[in-house]
Amino acid sequence: MDGSTRTFTKSSKLDNVCYDIRGPVMDEAQRMEALGSKITKLNIGNPAPFGFAAPDEIVLDLIYNLRNSEGYSDSRGLFSARKAIMQYCQLKNIPNVGIDDIFTGNGASELITMSMQGLLDKGDEILVPSPDYPLWTAAITLAGGTAVHYLCDEQSDWYPDIEDMRGKVTPNTKGIVVINPNNPTGALYPREILEQIVGIAREHRLLLFADEIYDRLVMDGEKHVALASLAPDLMTVCFNGLSKSHRVAGYRCGWMCLAGDKRGAKDYIDGLNLLAKMRLCSNVPGQSIVQTALGGYQSADELLKPGGRIYEQREYIYSALNDIPGISVVKPKAAFYIFPKMDIEKFHIRSDTQFALDLLKKTKILITAGTGFNWVAPDHFRIVYLPDLETLHDAMASMKSFFAGYVQK
Ligand code: PLP
Fold first, then answer.
1. Is residue 385 scored above 80 in pLDDT?
2. pLDDT of residue 1
3. Where are the domains of the chain?
């Protein structure tokens, strides 16, 4: 022993794994907070801190079930939870989901990572949207695969560009990830677009991964179409959970369902079961409320119609952003995100991370830069419009005066 300090570096598996939603700009916000600044957080899709309380019935049922939730459950989850999820699949025409095709997870996040760990080897490619919810790209990279991004087109309401997607399929492609409703754009894809995606998967015999965690947060009388409902002859791995619709992100309750024709995937499914067993089970108190959450009255509906908070906040943020010279934005149809575009020539923007830091330091508003969602240019950012109207109003006034004088150094 020579007394020198031994250094420990992170594993090379984490090279190129990014999750900027909680990245360096958020670190700076935390530093400013520690020094006493009040930060307006428009960066994380976490409803509870913004006064979106979970329904009382959910909390009461969780308390009621706590005693019976002390032990591990089956590694795939409680029977009652999985039965309720199975019935939810039936209502959404998601085909061929039996009780053993359902896995509960500590949020959908755990299962997204698991679904990629169980499938990918070096060289395998998965098609992922750009912009994406960055956990997908991170999970694919961590699993040793390659995320290949297909473009979503702002000119077409942020729908996936089907020709771009088709052009990116290679012999190494194993699957397509579809995030619908979408984070960060708030887009809701129509049936025709979904059918075209299924067509590509059918032609190239690909797996489909449908992240539909916002399917119960749709506005304007639109209806969400489950991707798997259009692909009974293919296998779709569907992801959903209660974090957003029931405002219980902290309870960590999500699920994954294997739908459609699974005959070719027996070995992959064995792998998923192995991974589920290795983590023993997902948290059982969270599972105990699934049945209550999915049945009957859906309190989220009230938030999404005219007069409801999410609806009214969307109306406001959409018009306030479009009112800022140099900013334009597509109206979101679902979830609680909006993805505005900046005129980078006008503001001389070369780095959107630098823009996010400049905005934070000047206005104490925290947003996430578009490249954090694997977007291709430094010309977008994401706002989470969960804070109440008064907070949004103040934030938009500050943002408007910020942009009026902004030229990136
Ligand atoms: N998928 C999408 C598109 C998301 O936006 C999120 C969270 O923001 C998740 C999955 C993960 O949700 P959870 O792990 O809370 O279920």
1. yes
2. 64
3. 12-52+302-404, 56-295
List, for residues 256-296, the tens digit of each pLDDT value. 999 999 999 999 999 999 999 999 999 999 999 999 999 98
The Cβ of residue 80 has, within 10 Å, a number of other Cβ atoms equal to 14
The residue written with tokens 């992170």 in the block is 10
- The answer, yes or no, to whether any atom of ligand 1 lies below 6 A from the CB of 183, is yes
pLDDT at 84 over 80: yes
The DSSP secondary structure of 70-87, one letter per residue, reads SS---TT--HHHHHHHHH
CATH topology of domain 56-295: Aspartate Aminotransferase; domain 2 (3.40.640)
Environment class of 44 (CB within 10 Å of its CB; exposed 0-12, middle 13-18, buried 19+): middle
Give the pLDDT confidence of 117-149 residue by residue, as tens digits: 999 999 999 999 999 999 999 999 999 999 999
Asked if pLDDT for residue 22 goes beyond 90, the answer is no
User: Is there a contact between 220 and 333 (Cβ–Cβ < 8 Å)?
Assistant: yes
Q: Is the CB of 268 under 6 A from ligand 1?
A: no
Atom of ligand 1 nearest to the CA of 244: 15
In short, whether 45's Cβ falls inside 6 Å of ligand 1 is yes
Tens of pLDDT, residues 221-240: 999 999 999 999 999 999 99
Q: What is the pLDDT of residue 19?
A: 79
Angle at 105 (CA atoms; ends 101, 109), nearest 5 degrees: 115
Asked whether this chain's domains 12-52+302-404 and 56-295 adopt the same fold, the reply is no
Question: Is the CB of 303 inside a 6 Å radius of any atom of ligand 1?
Answer: no
Helix, coil or strand: residue 75: coil
Determine the topology of domain 12-52+302-404 in CATH. Aspartate Aminotransferase, domain 1 (3.90.1150)
Cα of 213 from ligand 1 centre, angstroms: 6
Ligand 1 centroid – CA 178 distance (Å): 13
